[in-house]
Amino acid sequence: MPENKGLEGVVVANSKISSIIGSQLTYGGYEIDDLAENALFEEVVYLLWNDKLPTEQELEAFNKELFDLMSLDDNIYKHFELYPLDKVHPMSAVRTGLSLTAHFDENAEDKSLEASQQKAVRILAQLPALVAAFARLRNGKDVVKPKEGLTYAANFLYMLNGEESTDTEIEAMNKVLVLHADHELNASTFTARVCVGTESDVYSGVTAAIGALKGPLHGGANEQVMAMLKDIGTLDKTDSYIQKKFENKEKIMGMGHRVYKEGDPRAKYLKDMSKKLTDESGNSELFDISKRIAEIVKEEKGLLPNVDFFSATVYHSMGIESDLFTPIFAISRASGWTAHILEQYADNRLIRPRAEYIGATDRKYEPIENR
Ligand SMILES: CC(=O)SCCNC(=O)CCNC(=O)[C@H](O)C(C)(C)COP(=O)(O)OP(=O)(O)OC[C@H]1O[C@@H](n2cnc3c(N)ncnc32)[C@H](O)[C@@H]1OP(=O)(O)O
Ligand SMILES: O=C([O-])CC(=O)C(=O)O
């Protein structure tokens, strides 16, 4: 068995984008607490891509750039007619849809720095439109185009719900997007870097990353948390449900982390938001169940909630369908993926580790009739 199964603890890149030390997370040197409490998601994206926060004029120009690219090509809306929307997971739809947007970018194969930066803007602008369009069309509703003058978070909610959201909802969505934007070499970001390390293009890197985020051990855990909460149903059933999971050696979704052993600094914001939003939406028992799960898992396994645990009830309280939780994570993390892709291009070397061979040896080919 390799010493670092799953590459645990192995440092494979230098990066200026985000840092994790103990339970401290920073983006470009800014504490996550500072950004979560004060920043617009657009400012954070600008920071990840430019290693500086934007001035007012820079932010205004950036918002215009994003807005101008936010509407999808009509052919992308039309492609949703090609398959049974109600049978396809939104993360699969986003994986295909994002890849498809490349075909309507005449510079798709241009890997110059300028074209790659432009692709990052385009991807970040189009992902919320893609998720919202899929979600509306599968529910028999018309697509809603973005509205000028709204923030990124507000525009996503507008395209999803077809009406402007309340300040509380917009603030919550903005904070969720800020908290999920980047996280060093998590599995999907690493995937993106491996992909473009072959000198492949930005769309390929992001499409590969979406595939990696989908898995339940990574971004897909938030959807599974909601499924677990629904399965449990009432607070009194929580203890026995979790004990049964332990007996069956099943993992509790949203708990534990490869890097954070003393707690995920993002989780406390999501917990506070979950408490507030579940109270306001009449879902407080879901918060109570979550809190009890976290207590049991901490007592029995010493594991703490990660970013996916309380985000489930935040989204649910905002009326968002549970299979859209991971696509929302993807919208936010696209900012980090593209920042890492650009960083990888800037100082690239093919990423190609080795495996220790443990299979059979000295075999000889047998003609098929003799096997
Ligand atoms: C955005 C994100 O990606 S955050 C992570 C989202 N994923 C989840 O929430 C899924 C649940 N959590 C997990 O599967 C893990 O904690 C991970 C994948 C996040 C990190 O895992 P790793 O560092 O690789 O730990 P690993 O999976 O090797 O587990 C180590 C031990 O802790 C146990 N363990 C880890 N997480 C959990 C959990 N959530 N529930 C129960 N037991 C757990 C494992 O069963 C294992 O026990 P063992 O040594 O007795 O076999
Ligand atoms: O860093 C990780 O391994 C997973 C994670 O929390 C993230 O991607 O936000």
Automatic annotation (TrEMBL):
Keywords in UniProt for this one?
Transferase, Tricarboxylic acid cycle
Fetch the InterPro entries from UniProt: 2-MeCitrate/Citrate_synth_II (IPR011278), Citrate_synth-like_lrg_a-sub (IPR016142), Citrate_synth-like_sm_a-sub (IPR016143), Citrate_synthase (IPR002020), Citrate_synthase_bac-typ (IPR024176), Citrate_synthase_sf (IPR036969)
Query: A Pfam family in this protein?
Result: Citrate_synt
Residues the record marks as active site = 257, 308
Q: Which reaction does it catalyse?
A: oxaloacetate + acetyl-CoA + H2O = citrate + CoA + H(+)
**What do the Gene Ontology cellular component annotations say?**
cytosol
One of the record's GO molecular function terms: citrate synthase activity
Q: In which pathway does it act?
A: Carbohydrate metabolism; tricarboxylic acid cycle; isocitrate from oxaloacetate: step 1/2
Gene Ontology biological process terms in this record: carbohydrate metabolic process; tricarboxylic acid cycle
The superkingdom of the source organism is Bacteria
Q: Which family does it belong to?
A: Belongs to the citrate synthase family.
Q: Which NCBIfam families match?
A: cit_synth_II, PRK14034.1, PRK14035.1
**What is the name listed in the Swiss-Prot or TrEMBL entry for this protein?**
Citrate synthase
From what organism does this protein derive? Lacicoccus qingdaonensis
